């Protein structure tokens, strides 16, 4: 049925209604108008028409229109045998949209990674020097700015602390602690052991152990790897350090955002 063949009588009926026709004719025209409106609605929203629109929209991957038309079919034509099939199609569309959303998130993350490929955040790559003060080929990662924290012992409470990381590789990580935010790191004249509690950006808490043989707290290979993995996740990382033989000596600090450590580590290995 052509749309114009329906609309024209409606317009004519309305025109005649406004021209003072008898009530009987008026009612008859209104009835015809209503009948024509129903036919027009059936033409636009009939079961067959909706089914065709659903199949076309799905084929064209227009999932928004597909879902809209499926809901219309279910509401207007609950008796349609296609409703069951299209209900399963809705579940299929939901899975497709979830997969597309995940794909978009992965693509966006990769786009951001490539855009920040040379960004090392709070980290920088340096090189150790030889006995003449000349740079060697042995590199390390450290923080660009000293990390602030606090320390306490029998003589002081919550005094200023500065922290520097020295990362030669994923299995060789050390920490230098500068009490009172001065220039000389805490030293050991034999060996001092420390218990280290670390909380990564995902809230995981790890108990580690470090030993100071000179001027830095060094983790063994296994413990270093755990710290390295936490840095690779990025985000906030917290440390609570306690000297085992003198538990009143404690050091607390956190890294607000360790993002782009992975870039620094890549540069170290280049």
Task: Provide structural commentary.
There is one protein chain. The chain is of the alpha+beta class and 270 residues long. The chain has 2 domains: 3-114, no CATH class; 123-269. It has helices at residues 3-17, 23-45, 47-59, 63-76, 82-115, 221-233, 261-269; strands at 123-129, 135-143, 147-152, 159-169, 172-179, 192-199, 205-212, 217-219, 237-243, 250-255. The strands form 2 sheets. An 8-stranded antiparallel barrel has the order 3-4-5-8-7-6-9-10. A two-stranded antiparallel ribbon has the order 1-2. Helix 3 (47-59) runs antiparallel to helix 4. The longest helix is centred in the middle third of the chain and has 34 residues, at 82-115. The chain is elongated. The relative contact order is 0.09.
Radius of gyration: 37 Å
The helicity comes to 40-55%
Q: Helix segment count?
A: 7
Mean pLDDT, to the nearest integer, reads: 88
Work out the count of structural domains: 2
Fraction of residues in β-strands: 25-35%
**Element pattern in H and E:** HHHHHEEEEEEEEHEEH
Structural classification: alpha+beta
The number of distinct β-strands equals 10
Distance between the termini: 72 Å
Strand order of the largest sheet: 3-4-5-8-7-6-9-10
Could you list the spans in which at least 5 consecutive residues all have pLDDT below 50? none
């Amino acid at each position: 049925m052509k749309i114009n063949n329906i609309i024209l009588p409606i317009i004519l009926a309305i025109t005649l209604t406004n021209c003072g026709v008898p009530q009987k004719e008026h009612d008859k025209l209104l009835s015809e108008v209503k009948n024509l409106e129903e036919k027009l609605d059936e033409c636009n929203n009939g079961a067959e028409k909706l089914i065709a629109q659903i199949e076309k929209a799905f084929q064209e991957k227009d999932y928004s229109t597909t879902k809209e038309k499926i809901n219309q079919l279910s509401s207007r034509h609950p008796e349609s045998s296609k409703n069951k099939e299209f209900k399963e199609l809705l579940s299929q569309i939901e899975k497709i949209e979830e997969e597309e959303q995940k794909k978009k998130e992965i693509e966006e993350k990769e786009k951001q990674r490539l855009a920040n490929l040379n960004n090392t955040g709070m980290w920088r790559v340096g090189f150790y020097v030889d006995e003449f003060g000349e740079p060697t080929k042995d590199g390390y990662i450290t923080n660009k700015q000293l990390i602030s924290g606090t320390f306490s012992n029998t003589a002081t409470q919550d005094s200023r602390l500065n922290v520097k990381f020295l990362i030669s590789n994923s299995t060789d990580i050390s920490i230098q602690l500068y009490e009172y935010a001065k220039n000389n790191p805490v030293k050991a004249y034999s060996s001092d052991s420390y218990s280290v509690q670390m909380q990564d950006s995902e809230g995981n808490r790890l108990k580690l152990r470090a030993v100071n043989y000179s001027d830095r707290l060094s983790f063994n290979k296994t413990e270093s790897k755990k710290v390295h993995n936490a840095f690779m996740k990025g985000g906030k990382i917290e440390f609570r350090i306690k000297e085992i033989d003198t538990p009143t000596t404690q050091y607390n600090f956190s890294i607000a955002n360790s993002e782009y450590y992975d870039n620094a580590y890549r540069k170290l290995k280049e």
